[in-house]
User: Which sequence fits this backbone?
């Protein structure tokens, strides 16, 4: 029936109705609106039912809830109980979706007031905004996960989960955030898609996806509260017969791999576009006016505090997690054994070294806020070497440095104190996120010039300064002092040595009498434990060695102090950076050399200042530290994250643009040069004398090209059609394709009316149409049909020629 | 009365391919296409608000974590737009209005859908239909609304909105690639006249429900709505003239006389095939016999505005005439019809009756209805009867007159035959 005539009521409309009472126009009245899939040329894939879509939505909502609350694992906020409770509840309702119906009605009534009361009490008691908000968020997620959700509740889940993930990311700046954000985004998009499809399939009944869609009058007339109550306490049909295994099987059935592939590509596109946007969003260097970590007070986890007991550093050494990653712009400047200084401990009392209040007052300047600080090191000739540090959170508030520096620049403005003579930088609070800073002009040779101290030391006879005494005051009295004096004499042979000579001599003596161990034993008895250990031949760890050296040096009349930090590290061969782990924690000593007016590193267990200058540097130094393990691959990802994402700023943006521009220009230049070279080569080749072999080569190449073109045209197109046509069969099936070609051929002579109206012609056309469009089960034998079609075409053309002949004559 | 474009495939997939230019592509990404309207939904507003909030926090804190989150949110918005475009790409539709339409009766407005994409299905569309009567009466002068009060303008719009029927039909399931589907909207025209059925827009929240996309269409079809049938009371007519014996009438029926030849259709008896004529014309023809009728009536409708003052009464008149015409035709007793001064039209076929119903659908009171109608001049018992011989019927002319304040009565040769 010609559709153009259908909307015209006359002529013949009434006749059609009267004469053909069973026709389409007389069908019984249908519902207000409905969709009928009348014909699908493609292979009909099954489709998820409304119940299955609702089950999928419930499942994705649960997954989003879990992804959100699991951020507690690395957020270091006291919400473990709530997280565990939410996890258990979410898993329970995922396994048994009918459980929410068993929640008593009064729980729903009291839920909101209870949550608000909890939040206010939490805020009141802890006075910390962010942890209270996180706990509130988890509580809301818990409630949403154990109740049947409406559309707005589902959106709440997405927003609440996103809040948790963003807060965790901002607080930790961890690589985990990137992975979790990507997974969460994928799940959230799938969840939103499921919501849209569910509402669409329900035709607006499931929550009004279609704006202003008319709901059934009975529904709208029913009170909203009654509806909500009913929805919460009665398990819906989809929940009653939820079977996740069956759902996954159905998902596999309905999934078209091409659509999944396209979805994957689109998601990869989203990641790519977001990366481009990240690079392109204009950056401005605004001073920090808001940061989430200000709403949270975090407790230090590490042992690198102002006070260190013996065993603290060894305890840190048990932890193999990364503490520090360092990029070095000039690898030739890297020492073979870098010592990463963090803290100077000068005061010793009963087995504990600590930073004395006097030294703190004397050396540490006022607290400042900013992103740039200048050190004491003088600029050197030649290109500057930049050391970029990515200092993990939870290690210390004292920044690792390898000596005095010229300039230190934070990625973000920080509150800090600088002790320039000590080459120590202390942040006001222990950072809760990774701290990135770049240092220029390091002096990495283990010698720390301290002219002020030298001046004071020289004038110590004239005016004894109690603060100065902290670094050279003998730490023992009475018999212990005698013991120490005896040991010094034993170590030095009673000779009066310079500091530079004292260091190796005493270091060797210590190593001769004690061996290194991570499980030391200090002999029992009265008095100072360090003196007891020194007087024994027990094994010890780095703190005992360093502390003993300081005691001996001070007894011998040298100012000395304990330094804590890290020693060594590995060189990541993939990302080309130093990776220093907590297991590299170390303690050593520094002794003041009056001759040079500088503090010399004295490590009884390692390389001291004198030896470091003789060690190899650069590539030779790194060769022994190269790390090519799988762990190094993972660490390289972390460094990439820090380098390219976390530390990306206005300058990086400009550098990126510049790099892109240069790369484009270089590529263009290279391309032009390559084309010119190729043209010149071709020209020279053509200019050479031609012979049969060259001619054969050219003709062969042309023939090969023609063959490729023909193959591509014949099979490439078909392959592409098979790929995109998939199950349709109409384009991909060779029988259907050939039938279509025969129909097209027969259509040409059939333009003349009546040409194909003879019985055989009509039958052939009908059979071809069945082959082309009909179900496979109803096909006649294709080859026979094609033969008949060939004959019919021949006959039709013969008739055409016969009719045209008399006309011409 | 139909619009030619209603039967053509329209939609995003039916557009003619224009020459590709990068500027056109970029512009189409920035600026909505003609007729397209994009509005943020509540989730979309939340997303945009969230993006603003995170962007503000990102700039304030210089936190790249927040910049990443912002980038991802913006990328999701872009993905939403791309998927929405892909969803609508290749989708075409055409309107099918199934006649006959009759006031007060359900009719099905069908929309055929076709998805030309190779492997991507289409989801989550909804179709907004509008049906409104086309006013064939005087066209009001356009007036400026600049000085009008808002409440008045809103009232005008509300009235116009009430006068139209609206329907929204969702695409409840998937429209498969290279597949077709059909949307049906059941409509009940309230009044006779010319009805304009439009596919006002095609909307979608696909894929994530951030943005509501409305694609305006210009797909419309006009159709005539016949008057609603009405219940009426029949009265015995003592003076109705009866003919003795079967009088042949020129209408197809089960009589013995050959009326015409027509083409063979499936279901026709082989006995009716006229072999000689079929051989001559090289196509199968069957015989059609004339009906025999015992008596017949002619309807003469006068729509004098002075006589039919009440609009409701006039509607009853039109409905009664239409109902009587159909009933008489079914009974084989309708000979001819005439309206006012127009020439009488013999009703032999369904086509004649449908033409008459078409006229009734758009009929209104006229100032000078008594004019020179031939029934008026020839039918007995009617004012102005000049005694001249009628062309269609000499007697049994059914005329109509108001009965009371609301009713209408039909008279045959001056006798009341029916009332409604």
Assistant:
């Amino acid at each position: 029936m010609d559709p153009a005539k259908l909307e015209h009521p006359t002529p013949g409309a009434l006749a059609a109705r009267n004469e053909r009472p069973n026709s389409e126009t007389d069908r019984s009245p249908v519902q207000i609106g409905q969709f009928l899939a009348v014909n699908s040329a493609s292979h009909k894939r099954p489709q998820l039912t409304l119940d299955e879509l609702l089950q999928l939505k419930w499942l994705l909502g649960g997954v989003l809830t879990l992804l959100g609350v699991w951020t507690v694992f690395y957020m270091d906020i006291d919400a473990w109980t709530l997280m565990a409770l939410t996890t258990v509840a979410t898993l329970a309702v995922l396994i048994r979706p009918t459980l929410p119906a068993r929640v008593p009605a009064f729980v729903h009534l009291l839920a909101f007031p209870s949550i608000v009361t909890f939040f206010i009490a939490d805020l009141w008691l802890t006075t910390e905004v962010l942890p209270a908000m996180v706990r509130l968020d988890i509580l809301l997620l818990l409630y949403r996960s154990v109740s049947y959700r409406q559309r707005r509740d589902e959106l709440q889940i997405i927003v609440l989960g996103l809040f948790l993930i963003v807060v965790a990311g901002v607080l930790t700046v961890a690589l985990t955030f990137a992975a979790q954000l990507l997974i969460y985004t994928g799940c959230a998009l799938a969840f939103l898609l499921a919501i849209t499809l569910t509402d669409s399939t329900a035709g607006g009944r499931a929550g009004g996806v279609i704006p202003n869609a008319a709901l059934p009058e009975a529904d709208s007339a029913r009170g909203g509260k009654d509806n909500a109550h009913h929805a919460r306490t009665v398990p819906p049909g989809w929940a009653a017969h939820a079977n996740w295994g069956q759902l996954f099987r159905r998902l596999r059935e309905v999934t078209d791999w091409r659509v999944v592939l396209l979805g994957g590509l689109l998601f990869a596109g989203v990641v790519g576009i977001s990366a481009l946007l990240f690079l392109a969003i204009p950056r401005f260097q605004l001073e920090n006016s808001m940061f989430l970590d200000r709403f949270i007070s975090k407790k230090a986890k590490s042992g690198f505090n102002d006070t260190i007991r013996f065993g603290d550093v060894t305890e840190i050494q048990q932890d193999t997690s990364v503490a520090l990653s360092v990029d070095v712009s000039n690898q030739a400047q890297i020492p073979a054994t870098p010592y990463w200084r963090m803290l100077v401990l000068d005061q010793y009392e009963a087995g504990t070294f600590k930073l004395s209040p006097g030294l703190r007052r004397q050396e540490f300047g006022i607290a400042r806020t900013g992103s740039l600080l200048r050190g004491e090191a003088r600029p050197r000739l030649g290109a500057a070497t930049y050391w970029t540090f990515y200092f993990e959170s939870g290690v210390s508030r004292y920044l690792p440095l390898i000596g005095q520096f010229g300039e230190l620049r934070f990625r973000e403005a920080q509150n800090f104190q600088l002790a320039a003579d000590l080459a120590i930088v202390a942040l006001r609070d222990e950072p809760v996120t990774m701290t990135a800073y770049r240092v220029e002009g390091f002096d990495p040779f283990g010698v720390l010039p301290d002219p002020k101290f030298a001046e004071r030391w020289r004038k110590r006879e004239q005016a004894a300064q109690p603060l100065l005494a902290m670094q050279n005051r003998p730490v023992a009295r009475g018999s212990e002092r005698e013991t120490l004096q005896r040991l010094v004499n034993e170590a030095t042979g009673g000779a009066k040595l310079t500091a530079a000579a004292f260091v190796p001599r005493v270091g060797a003596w210590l190593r001769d009498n004690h061996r290194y161990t991570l499980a030391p034993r200090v002999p029992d008895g009265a008095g100072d434990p360090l003196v007891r250990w020194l007087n024994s031949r027990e094994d010890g760890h780095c703190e005992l060695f360093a502390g003993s050296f300081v005691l001996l040096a001070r007894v011998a009349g040298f100012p000395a102090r304990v330094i804590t930090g890290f020693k060594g590290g590995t060189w990541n061969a993939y990302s080309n950076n130093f990776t220093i782990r907590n297991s590299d924690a170390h303690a050593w000593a520094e002794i003041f050399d009056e001759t040079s007016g500088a503090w010399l590193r004295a490590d009884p267990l390692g390389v001291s200042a004198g030896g470091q200058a003789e060690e190899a540097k650069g590539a030779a130094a790194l060769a022994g530290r190269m790390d090519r393990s799988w762990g190094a691959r993972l660490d390289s990802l972390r460094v990439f994250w820090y380098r390219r994402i976390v530390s990306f700023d206005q300058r990086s943006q400009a550098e990126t643009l510049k790099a892109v521009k240069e790369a484009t220009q270089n590529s263009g230049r290279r391309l032009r040069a390559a084309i010119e070279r190729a043209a010149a080569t071709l020209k020279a080749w053509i200019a050479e004398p031609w012979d049969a072999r060259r001619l054969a080569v050219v003709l062969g190449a042309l023939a090969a090209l023609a063959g490729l073109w023909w193959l591509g045209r014949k099979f490439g197109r078909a392959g592409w059609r098979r790929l995109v046509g998939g199950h349709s069969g109409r384009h991909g099936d060779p029988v259907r394709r050939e039938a279509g070609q025969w129909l097209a051929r027969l259509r040409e002579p059939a333009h003349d009316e009546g040409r194909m109206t003879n019985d055989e012609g009509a039958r052939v056309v009908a059979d071809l149409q069945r082959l082309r469009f009909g179900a496979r089960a109803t096909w006649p034998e294709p080859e026979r049909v094609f033969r008949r079609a060939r004959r019919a075409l021949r006959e039709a053309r013969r008739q055409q020629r016969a009719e045209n002949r008399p006309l011409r004559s | 009365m139909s619009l030619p474009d209603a039967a053509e495939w329209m939609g995003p997939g039916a557009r003619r391919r224009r020459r590709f230019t990068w500027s056109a592509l970029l512009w189409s990404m920035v600026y909505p296409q003609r007729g397209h309207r994009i509005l943020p939904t509540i989730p979309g507003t939340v997303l945009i608000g969230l993006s603003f909030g995170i962007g503000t926090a990102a700039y304030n804190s210089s936190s790249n974590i927040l910049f990443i989150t912002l980038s991802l949110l913006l990328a999701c918005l872009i993905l939403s737009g791309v998927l929405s475009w892909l969803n609508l790409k290749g989708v075409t539709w055409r309107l099918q209005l199934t006649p006959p339409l009759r006031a007060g009766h359900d009719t099905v407005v069908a929309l055929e859908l076709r998805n030309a994409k190779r492997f991507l299905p289409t989801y989550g569309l909804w179709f907004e239909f509008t049906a409104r009567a086309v006013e064939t009466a005087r066209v009001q002068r356009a007036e400026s609304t600049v000085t009008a009060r808002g409440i008045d303008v809103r009232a005008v719009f509300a009235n116009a909105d009430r006068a139209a029927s609206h329907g929204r039909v969702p695409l409840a399931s998937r429209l498969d690639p290279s597949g077709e589907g059909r949307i049906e909207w059941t409509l009940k025209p309230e009044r006779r006249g010319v009805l304009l059925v439009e596919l006002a827009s095609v909307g979608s929240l696909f894929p994530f429900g951030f943005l509501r996309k409305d694609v305006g269409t210009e797909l419309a079809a006009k159709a005539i709505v016949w008057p609603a049938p009405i219940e009426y009371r029949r009265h015995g007519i003592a003076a109705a003239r009866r003919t003795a014996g079967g009088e042949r009438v020129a209408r197809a029926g089960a009589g013995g006389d050959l009326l015409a030849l027509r083409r063979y259709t499936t279901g026709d008896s082989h006995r009716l095939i006229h072999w000689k004529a079929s051989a001559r014309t090289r196509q199968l023809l069957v015989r059609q016999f004339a009906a025999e009728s015992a008596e017949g009536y002619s309807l003469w409708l006068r729509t004098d505005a002075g006589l039919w003052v009440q609009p409701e009464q006039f509607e009853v008149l039109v409905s009664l005439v239409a109902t009587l015409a159909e009933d008489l035709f079914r009974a084989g007793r309708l000979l001819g019809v005439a309206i006012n001064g127009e020439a009488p039209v013999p009703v032999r076929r369904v086509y004649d009756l449908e033409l008459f119903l078409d006229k009734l659908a758009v009929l209104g009171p006229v100032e000078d209805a008594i004019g020179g109608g031939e029934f008026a001049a020839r039918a007995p018992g009617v004012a102005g009867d000049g005694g001249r011989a009628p062309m269609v019927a000499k007697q049994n002319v059914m005329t109509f007159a108001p009965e009371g304040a609301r009713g209408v009565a039909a008279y045959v040769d001056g006798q009341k035959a029916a009332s409604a």
